[in-house]
Amino acid sequence: MGFEWLPAEPLSAHTSLGVGGRANVVRIHEFRRLPELMDYLERRSLPWRVLGGGSNLLVADQDLDDVVMQLARPKNGTTFVGNRVEVAAAANLGTTVMECAKQNLGGMEGLIGVPGTVGGALRMNAGAYGTEIGPLARSLSVYRGDAGRVEILKTPDLKFEYRHSSFAPNDIMLSVSLELISRPYAEIVEKVKLFNQKRRASQPINEKSAGCIFKNPPGHSAGKMMDELGLKGTRVGGAVVSERHANFFVNRYQGTAADILKLMDMVRERVLKTYGLELEEEVIVWRL
Ligand code: EPU
To answer: How do the domains of the chain map onto residue ranges?
Structure first.
C-alpha cells in the first residue's frame, strides 16, 4: 500500500492539544511514491501541508481545504554505523532515544519526554535540559517540494537556531543521520531517569498540551513571567494556563482552538503591558 487516504479526518485526533477541524489526510507508506502523489495534487491544484507527530501544533477549529500529508511510522527503519544512527523522520523521538541507548549511544538523553517525531523535532530544533537535536544532525534525506525531488542535505546546508530551522515549509524530511556519543547503556538510563523526574515535577505531562506555547524571549523565561503575573489557572472555555508550568496551556475541559488562541492573546497582552516584551508563539498555528 503506497498511500492511505483518510477523508474528512478530524485533526483533533492527530494533535496532542486535541483540537482542530477536519481535513483530507493522506498517510504515506512508500516514500518512493511521493512524486506520484505530488503530481496528483498538482494536477488538481490541491495545496498541502505536512503533519508530524502533532505535538507542537495548534490547528484551527474550521475544516482545512489543504490535503494533510503524514508519513507512516516505520516498522524497523533504524540502522547504526559507528556513532551514527540513521532513522526515519517519522520515528518517535523518545523511542529513538531508547533504541540508541541499547546500542550504547547517548547524547540525546535530554530529549527524552519530548513528544513527537524525529522529523518534527528537527524542524523545530526541539531542545530540553541543555540538548538541542539540530546540532546532532549530519545528513538528511528530504523531499524538496520546490524542486520536486529527494535531496541529501549535509551539515553545512542545515541551519538550526533556538526552536527554528532552515527547512522550507514544503520540505518533507524522510530520514536523518544523527551523530551520537559512545556511552554505556546504564549511564544513559540514569540520565534518562533524572530528566524524566525533572519533567514530571515541572510540566503537566498527563494533560493535553503542545508543550511550551511561547518561545522564551532572550534572557527571559516566558513561564516565569506568566507565573509572576498570577496567570496560572486562568481559563478561557476549556483551555487553562497550567498550574504546574505557566507556559503550558492545557486543554482540560474539551476546549477549542479558539479558546486557546484567545488565552494566548490575553497572556501576550499582559506580558507586553508589564514587561514590555512581545511573546512569540512557539507552537505552530495552522489557520485557514
Ligand atoms: N518558572 C516559574 N514558573 C513557571 C514556569 C517556570 O517560576 O510556571 C521558572 C522555573 O522555576 C525556572 C525558570 O522559570 O527558574 C525556567 O523554567 P524551566 O526550567 O521550566 O524552563 P523553561 O524555560 O520554562 C524550557 C523549554 C522547555 C524545556 C525546558 C527544560 C522553552 C520555551 N521551553 O522551558 O521546552 O522542556 O526548558 O529544558 O524554551 C518546549 O519547547 O515546548 C518545551 C517545553
So the answer is: 3-71, 78-201, 204-286
pLDDT digits (tens, 9 = 90+) for 223-280: 999 999 999 999 999 999 999 999 999 999 999 999 999 999 999 999 999 999 999 9
Is a pLDDT exceeding 80 seen at residue 156?
Answer: yes
Dist. CA 235–CA 131, nearest whole Å: 32
What DSSP string runs through 58-123? EE-SSPPSSEEEEEPPPSS--EEETTEEEEETTSBHHHHHHHHHHTTEES-GGGTT--SBHHHHHH
Helix (H, G, I), strand (E, B) or coil at 144: strand
In ligand 1, the atom with minimum distance to the C-alpha of 215 is 32
CA–CA dist 15, 57 (Å, integer):
7
CATH architecture of 78-201: 2-Layer Sandwich (3.30)
DSSP 10-52: EGGGGSTT----EEEEEEES-GGGHHHHHHHHHHTT--EEE--
Give kind and range of the element (H or E) at residue 178.
strand 171-179
235: its cell numbers: 481559563
pTM above 0.70, yes or no: yes
End-to-end CA separation in angstroms for the chain:
30
Whether residue 216 has its Cβ less than 6 Å from ligand 1: yes
Cα(128) to centroid(ligand 1), Å: 9
Architecture of the domain defined by 3-71: 2-Layer Sandwich (3.30)
| Fold classification of 204-286 (topology level) | 3.90.78
